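quick one if you have a minute, typing this from the bus. below you get a single protein, a line of residues and a line of whole numbers that encode the local backbone shape. could you go over both lines and see whether the tokens make sense for that sequence. anything you notice is useful, everything is just below.
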Amino acid sequence: MQRMRLLSTFFILCCCHPSLAQQATVSGIIKHATSGENLLGVIVINDTTPAAVSDTNGFYKLTLAPGSYRLTFKLLGFESRTINIALMENETKSINVSLSPSAKELGTVVVSAGRFEQRLEDVTVSMNVIKPRLIENTNVVNMEDFMGQVPGVNVTDGQINIRGGSGWSYGAGSRVLVLVDDIPLLAADANDVKWNFIPVENLEQIEVIKGASSALFGSSALNGVVNFRTAYPKSTPATQVILHTGFYDTPARKELKWWGDNRQMTSGFSIFHSEQLKQNDIVAGANYFRDDGYRAGEDEERFRFNVNYRYRFKKIEGLTAGLKTNAMFSQSGIFFIWANDSTGALTPLGGLDTATTSISRNSLIRYSVDPFFTYVKNNGTSHKLSTRYFTTINKNNTDQASTAAWYFAEYQFQKKIKDAITLTAGITDAYSDVVSQLYGNHNGNNLAAFAQADIKYKKVSLSLGGRLEASRIDTVEGDPTPVIRSGLNFHLFKDTYLRTSYGQGYRFPSIAEKYISTQVAGVSIYPNDSLKPETGWSAEIGIMQGIKVFGWKGYFDAAVFQSEYKEMMEFTFGQWGASVPPQYGLGFKSLNIGNTKIRGFDISLSGTGSIGKVTDVNVLIGYTYTDPRQTNFNPAVDTSRNSLPTNLLKYRYRHLFKGDIEGTIKKLSAGVSVRYNSFMENIDRLFESGIQPFLPPMGEYRKKHNTGDIVWDVRCSYKVLSNLKTSFLIKNLFNLEYVGRPYDMQPPRSFTLQFSLTL
């Protein structure tokens, strides 16, 4: 009797428990219908219930009871596909699926807003997306110059700011976090951006977030984020070689031409190859650039190469591991102050004589090594471990050698629930080790934990997130600081989306800002070890309208924004040392200037497609107005430092306009770019008055050039063969004379010839 009960119990368990019942299996690979690329993140729906998600190999797998089913395959930016299947007991069925890009969707998919793929129109923050075609067509040799073409973005002497959130800090500190594949690319010592180190030959797209994003990305994302996303190989191998050469024209004022009858040339090349070899994804690239320089003594030569490798495990579904490397070697000269504003605006203070010149000669080595692991399960759960070792070695002839090593690790967990909820959480640790004549020897650490929930319900997208972060430099520790962000997006009408967002930010001082003590190109920079961290918040209300005109699809976007900062850090020029020659105690020092408020609005239009016989019509246009103010302005102190007796923040433009349009008719393509900035009203007062002979006055020059600057670039290209294109570019078409910051004359007109070969 006891034996019968045991057998009955076992029989009931076998019949009722899913793992013991007779089951069937369906699996396969999901690919891009055009490129053949394996598609990650495709949601497989069994009738109405999400049942699986494709992994990094495009692989999906379902275990179902025998019967008939209706499977739907869905991915953002692609047409959904539905298949009816019938499964028998113990049957194993293989069904491979191809998805085509959606003709109905506007089609831009981004990652940076929430660390997962979502449609651009669904995000809760202002974003611009730039495709690599524009970078190639404009012959970008320095990503710093290209970012100045993005609406609402300005780059001054390497310092990037978005919507007037930063001024000019001469290579130290950044309120905009620059990422490459979600990993920060700021140097360990100065927390500045190494623009030439970005692998421009292997970019999938650039995503620019405007507004505080510290909750997801941490310190230095106070003013926004720029994420450079690199590409992986498609099913077909690809190789591209680009060669270019050019020269600088005579400046508008011929007396500025210091190079006589010679030609100041530029030249370079880039090469890129990507290929899939079974389970291996390999990308390799190299870039060389030589610039004789339009300013005396500021020549540059650099070489960079990178290799990305990823292995897709066959026996462990969803597991990938890889290694990304990038290395650069460069030699260059730089000066900070011109000899004078008449005939010497392109020559350094002190001339070219080695005994008196203010030119600093630099030799740089930079390299990074990024091991990573990703595990994507079919149930929508993913685990990601990203690490980076980033070293910068700076040697020069002015006793300013510095070696900075940065160690970074981040673990991220993500869970997708029923195609409506995405939960993201993680922990990061970043350690800095600096050995330097510039700053002394220091180390620092940043530890943080973050979490965010993104919810999509019918026409509403909601985002809520937070971060807890603690930083230290040597024995100086900052209090653990919580920051939050929230956002709401409402699909109002067809292709009309309303959004609002609020985000807090936090930035700990960099080693350079606290401890630097040196001279750069003849200018002293003083330490300030009492600097306090700065905090702030940013809010906006915006609207995005999708536009479809014939075959052209794009977005019109408008937003009103406001940012406030407490204890804002700014480099300030003044007399911080003893009043003795030759510098008379003058130089830069990082200060907490107090509380600030920045208000404004921006509008933009972007898109791509065809209009009539004109194909590849790419548009990127935007206007930004900002009103940046110091709210605790003290006339007794601040007026003595500023060129204006006002609370207007220094080194900002109230008006920015950026535009780029290009199109193709058969084999001929043409494009035009324009950049306008209004007059930089407020600068450091001592730059206007000057102190001879150390600091030439700029007051008279600024009075003559007080209407702002508008710079035009043009380009055209012709397809000689299906895989060979030749291009001709003219930058600064009307040869405008203009400066970016005091004593920083920008390039005169230049001509470039480019050849591009794709295999």
